Amino acid sequence: MGYAIVGLFAFVVGGLLVFVLTERKRNDYNKRAADVAVDGARVKQERSEVVALRNANERELQEERDRLAQLAADLEGRTIAYSELEAENSNLKSIQIALAQNVRKNHLDIQKQDEVVANQAQRSKELGKRYLNENVKWIGKGIDANNYASSKQKLVTVIERCRSIGFEVSAEEESVLLDDLKSEFEKAVRSALEREEQARLKAQIREEQQREKEIQRELDRIQREKEAIEGALAVALAQARDEHDAEVASLRARLAEAEESQRAVSQAQLTKAGYVYVISNIGSFGEGVYKIGMTRRRTPLDRVRELGDASVPFPFDVHMMISANNAPQLEHTLHKAFQKMQVNRVNPRKEFFRVDLHEIADVVREHHGDIEYEADAEALQYRQSISMSDDDQEYIESVYDEFDDEVAENLSSDIREE
């Protein structure tokens, strides 16, 4: 029995040992199986990645093969046969020869055109120079004491035209031409001042001489009449022996009265003849204002020039100059016709009227007869003054200041010596 218990115990202990060993082995197996499963999953993942990488490489290789195949096809398409190259080279040589010939021809044509252009340029230069010289000469001949600004503008315009057609006028040449124009203007001013001063002095001398002659003739006539009357009275008194003194005195008074009446009638007849003028001055009074006046001077324009000398800044323009046997009556008729249009209504002696020129002509035709008149006012100095520069104005004033006193003094001394 003891052996049985020992055997049983040994069996149990052995079973326990076997169980423990078996359990350990099973745990090791399970652990190893888990490790194998993990390794298998990792290997499967790595296999998938390798497959994907292999597929990508295969696609890249296929694409590269396709690209190389396309390059090979392109290269094959670009390959030219030697015969074709030889033919093309021959054509290129022919074309090159033709081009060389054309270049030579074009070069010759260009040389010829250059010669033509040079000839045309020389011709244009000659024509431009001729045009400039002729215009400078023409402007120089036409310059006077009153048109420096307009003459200068004409010269500048001519120079600009020359430049516009390719004929170059340098700044130095332009300056010389303008200086020459100034010299011509100064000569014209000097001549004009000399003529005006000479005419004024001679007219003054003539008037004084005429006045002296008229006075002397009147004195001679009075003396002759006095001597004739004294002689007749002496004869009459001698014959009448002082019996008819009263009658002689009466006759003497009647004779003197008749002579005075005759002189008055003659003077009245002489003073009626004259000129009625219609003039304007746009620069002084504006558009549409006319002066209607009368003069008995033999040269009526002298009166117009006299009105425009010092009293107004610009000379008058003449629209009508009417010769009439009874000038005072015609003037009075015109003044009455336009009385309501007088500029100065306070003083009727002022003969300026704001009226249409055609209306004045209609009244003249009605009371005097048909007449020709100038409708447009030139107003040359006024229009030049508007466009004149300050530099030109200063220059003109300096020229007049330089010559005015000198000319007056020289001419006065010359005429006194004559």
**Oligomeric state, counting identical vs distinct chains:** single chain
Q: Can you tell me the overall shape?
A: elongated
If you compute it from the alpha carbons, what radius of gyration comes out, rounded to the nearest whole angstrom?
Answer: 64 Å
Measured between the Cα atoms of the first and last residue, the distance is 204 Å
Going across the major beta sheet, what is the strand order?
3-1-2-4
Listing every helix as H and every strand as E from the N terminus to the C terminus, the arrangement reads: HHHHHEHEHEHEHHH
Low-confidence stretches: 264-270
Strand percent estimate: 5-15%
Average pLDDT for all residues: 77
Q: Helical residue percent?
A: over 70%
DSSP E strands, number: 4
Class from helix and strand fractions: mainly alpha
Instruction: Note the total helix count.
Output: 11
Give the biggest beta sheet.
4 strands, antiparallel
Structure description:
With 418 residues, the chain is mostly helical. Among the domains are: 60 residues; 115 residues, no CATH class. α3 runs antiparallel to α4, α4 packs parallel to α11 and α8 packs across α9. The radius of gyration is 64 Å and the shape is elongated. The chain starts with a helix and ends with a helix. About 2% of the residues have low confidence.
Note the topology:
Elements (H helix, E strand, L loop, with lengths): L1 H77 L3 H61 L5 H17 L6 H70 L4 H28 L1 E7 L1 H4 L3 E7 L4 H8 L9 E8 L2 H11 L14 E3 L2 H11 L12 H8 L2 H28 L1
Helix pairs in contact: 2-3, 3-4, 4-11, 8-9
